[in-house]
Design a protein that fits this description.
Blueprint lengths: L1 H26 L1 E2 L7 E5 L4 H15 L4 E7 L13 H18 L7 E6 L9 H18 L3 E5 L11 H10 L6 E5 L7 H11 L2 E4 L5 H9 L2 H4 L12 H7 L4 E5 L2 H4 L7
Parallel strand pairs: 1-7, 2-3, 2-5, 3-4, 5-6
Antiparallel strand pairs: 6-8, 7-8
Helix pairs in contact: 1-6, 2-7, 3-7, 4-5
């Protein structure tokens, strides 16, 4: 009975997500690229691939610079696992992140790890938050991106939701002019959040990844600790259905209103 109920919930979720994707496609516009570097902020190793792996692969194929900054070490994805310690998991996820970046053709020199403890982004002390904003500001000054990609806020994750505010504060602390775009990850698991993006956020764009989806799939396969069960556990850390949602083409992004950033957008 429990498995039957679970399958029914998954069936309903799939139908709801397909309907939401249809609405998103109808209300969104084609994403247009810039001839400037892109900076992707990922709360955990795998978010960059799940959210905008197709875009990263396409931009690299076109010869443009893409930088990825991982904010946390990802050490909290397997709480109370009997065989893998948080320290071992952090080391493993860093290696997986580098392998995934390579699958997306991102230069290892453009992959950066801030190594904040996983699970604290939503409870940072004012001093710790300011330190993190300073570090992100340094990367913004270093890379001078035209666009900064962050997870949606809200995205259904306590670790994802604060990143937009961190990015806005970091950008406002520097002289660089850039747009901030949001990519969904856990939104695909919660159709109500997607409806909010469609009818409230409004400024939605789709990006046809086409042939570059194979790069995204290869990159995501590098995150074995997340997409495969870690024995003796029998289920993967990420729900397979959610991973499947993230691998559908096209990818979708939402442009953050410039009024929140308090700066003029960069020239096209």
């Amino acid at each position: 009975m429990k498995n039957r109920y679970r399958r029914f919930k998954e069936f309903i979720r799939r139908i709801a997500i397909k309907l939401c994707r249809g609405l998103l496609y109808f209300f969104s516009r084609t994403y247009r690229v810039q001839n400037r570097p892109v900076l992707v902020l990922a709360p955990h190793p795998d978010d960059e691939t799940l959210g905008c792996g197709g875009l990263i692969a396409r931009r690299r194929n076109e010869g443009y610079e893409v930088h990825i900054v991982f904010l946390t070490d990802g050490s909290a994805s397997h709480p109370e696992h009997p065989l893998i310690t948080p320290t071992e998991l952090a080391t493993l996820r860093r290696a997986e992140a580098l392998a995934a970046a390579d699958a997306l053709d991102v230069d290892p020199a453009c992959v950066h790890f801030l190594d904040e403890p996983d699970g604290v982004l939503n409870i940072l002390t004012p001093q710790r938050r300011q330190h993190l904003v300073q570090r992100l500001g340094d990367f913004i000054s270093l890379t001078a991106p035209g666009r900064i990609f962050v997870p949606c806020s809200p995205d259904g994750s306590s670790e994802h939701d604060p990143v937009l505010g961190l990015a806005i504060d970091a950008l406002n602390s520097r002289e660089v002019r850039a747009e901030i775009w949001q990519y969904p990850v856990w939104c695909w698991w919660n159709p109500t959040l997607l409806l909010d993006k469609i009818f409230v956020f409004a400024d939605a764009y789709y990006h046809e990844s086409e042939d570059f989806m194979q790069h995204k799939r290869r990159a995501l396969a590098c995150y074995r600790s997340q997409v495969e069960p870690s024995p003796p556990w029998h289920e993967a850390s990420l729900p397979p259905t959610m991973v499947d949602f993230c691998l559908w083409d096209p990818e979708y992004y939402f442009r953050t209103p410039s009024s929140l950033i308090r700066k003029e957008p960069p020239p096209y």
